[in-house]
């Protein structure tokens, strides 16, 4: 657990690997740089899980319809098992409905942020019980701490 007292775990679809846009090592480099930049601000990520698959990918070994790709909840379940997390007391914050659906599938409290794809997603589909925040900081300040 990081210094905040909360576990911070990133759960990410990275279909660009299956689509041939970049390789898994590039995902690792990006994640390392994200962690480095966050640490400069005394912010930390405890774990990162990602799915490199996509059913329409052009890279054969990644072209599949898998259980880890959100909205499927397999990455959340794996994180919960590996970090002894009670998902019913956890939050899933994301900018796509696939994030919200994955969180809801395992009874997380899910929050849609309007940054990234969130504003477009919120117009595309509205679900009345979904919590909506302006951005990640707003979600954390108003709903988590």
Share of helix, binned = 25-40%
User: How much strand content do the residues show?
Assistant: 15-25%
Task: Tell me the name of the CATH homologous superfamily of the largest domain.
Answer: HAD superfamily/HAD-like
Integer tally of domains: 2
Number of strands: 5
CATH architecture of the largest domain: 3-Layer(aba) Sandwich
Which class best fits the helix and strand makeup?
Answer: alpha/beta
The level-1 CATH class of the largest domain: Alpha Beta
List unreliable stretches of 5+ residues.
Answer: none
Main sheet record? 3 strands, parallel
Strand order within the widest sheet?
3-4-5
* Overall outline: globular
What is the gyration radius calculated from CA atoms? 15 Å
N-to-C CA distance: 16 Å
Helix segment tally: 5
Q: What is the third-level CATH name, the topology of the largest domain?
A: Rossmann fold
User: Averaging pLDDT over every residue, what do you get?
Assistant: 92
The sequence of SSEs as H and E is EHEHEHEHEH
Write a structural description.
With about 140 residues, this protein is of the alpha/beta class. The protein has five helices and five strands, in the order βαβαβαβαβα. The chain is globular, with a radius of gyration of 15 Å. The chain starts with 8 loop residues before the first strand and ends with a helix.
């Amino acid at each position: 657990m990081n210094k905040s007292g909360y576990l911070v775990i990133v759960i990410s679809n990275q279909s660009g690997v299956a689509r041939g846009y970049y390789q898994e090592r590039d995902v690792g480099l990006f994640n390392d740089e994200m962690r480095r930049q966050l640490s400069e601000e005394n912010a930390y990520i405890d774990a990162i899980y990602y799915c490199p698959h996509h059913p329409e990918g052009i890279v054969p070994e990644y072209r599949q319809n898998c259980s880890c790709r959100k909205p499927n909840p397999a990455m959340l379940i794996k994180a919960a098992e590996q970090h002894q997390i009670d998902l019913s007391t956890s939050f899933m914050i994301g900018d796509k409905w696939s994030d919200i659906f994955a969180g809801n599938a395992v009874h997380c409290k899910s929050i849609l942020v309007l940054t990234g794809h969130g504003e477009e997603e919120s117009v595309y589909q509205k679900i009345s019980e979904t919590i909506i925040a302006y951005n990640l900081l707003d979600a954390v300040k108003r709903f988590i701490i």
